[in-house]
Input
Amino acid sequence: MITAKKSRSFSKGFHLYNTYWLLKRSFSSIYIKGSFSKRDTSALILVNHSSWWDGLVTFF
Output
């Protein structure tokens, strides 16, 4: 398996672009059901349909 080379600057820049340009321009609100209180636990994220928005919303 190839190990991912994550870049903090790219992640931060893409987060800003994703949040303030793509999502706010296209959606009036995003609802998250449930709570994520522990940072060291795993989470299973399910989306209701498959489209290219699903990856952007989970990144958000």
